[in-house]
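Thread title: Can someone regenerate the structure for this chain?

I was given the following input by a collaborator and told the matching structure tokens would be attached. They weren't. Posting the sequence so someone can regenerate them.
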Amino acid sequence: MAMAQWLKRGWMLVLLIPMLAWGVLPAGAASAGTTIASGLSGPRALAVGSDGTLYVTEAGSGGSEKLPAEPGSEGPPGTRGTTGQVSKIAPDGTKTVLASNLPSYNSDGAVGPAGIVATDGALFFVTGGGALAANLTPLANEATLLRLDLATGAVTKVADLGAYEKAHNPDGFGLNSDPYGVTPGPDGTLYVADAGANAVYRVNPANGQVTLVSVIPGIIPPASVPIPPGGNPERNGKAELDPVPTSVAIGPDGSLYIGLLSGGPFPQGAAKVLRLGADGKLTDYATGLTMVVAMAFGPDGRLYATEISTDFAPALEGKPPAAGNVLRLLPDGTKEVVAADLMVPNGLAFDAAGDLYVLNNTVAMGPPGPPQGQVLRFAGIAAPQSSTVTQVPNGSLDPVSPAADAAGRALWAAQHGGDATGYAGASRGDQVTWNSVALNGR
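Best answer:
Regenerated them for you:
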């Protein structure tokens, strides 16, 4: 196995394709989904507004500035520029660019605008980059958390995460910052997964204060993956892969869930989802995954994750990787495929009805051509369920923590056939319709 196949940082974390030449990936691979939008340039993440509007970050196609050649690379040098953008997609499919001239790196796969959150009147999104790893001067707004005012279109910098990495380097390995995933906390703060820094941050959007939440430990590769002599040079010779945190989500239990891509060679089963509890301890929530790039909790309270490919080994030989999918990850370890046969999928989000939106064809290879990124919709994947509870006997519903859901409704737990189910409603003993929610870990 070539030593370079173990490197994550040396590839500038293209996320997720090393410099190969497969040709352009075919569009429309997921026939079960409905195409909502197409012609997107390297789409990375999406969010759904309260009115059903979709907001998509597009990593772009690099630019006119040529990058230094990667050691051992055979293809043309990559480029960087300002072709990244943020777009909105109306319910009728109309696409409008909201912000352009954002940083973009491209080496047969783009790095640029990534994770995004929609709030009332504003979008918050992160941008990736490769300047620190390549010892280059960062582009404007590279490796930052940005705010886009939906009324004025103004883009302002909230926090410079690349500067934080350069000043603090939390994981102690080579300098690298590639903010990739972002999610809102219950108090309005934002949590950011920095895939290059192997760290998760909490950012106060009001003043830009950055707080380190957790440094993510390395991943022990599966036994089937031979360890190179001398270990992984990117981790000081340790026999482990970089974790590469790509996604974060707050669960119904109030815990922070962190999705890991794993470093190259991206072996099957090496990726996982971690749970960060209130005690600050990391535990495995879901293991045996492959190349996790996005996560979200649905209206049903379940956790969903995108695997960009279920087998990346063919790509290391210059062939297309296996298709990716979207999984439902249950607390007991069960994995259920809810959207299959996707071509290099990435970000996912849900509307209030539980319809799943997922990005497809997010990386185009080979000769330049028109953008082929898509938004696909899969109806009813995470539809909330309801149950009618009539005159609940006192004591049969127990309060849980947190005591209320996002809508402020009281949360209670009831036992049904040995399975703990949560119900959100008014109060114990009322005759009401309760919305069933998942209680992770119960």
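The radius of gyration is 21 Å.
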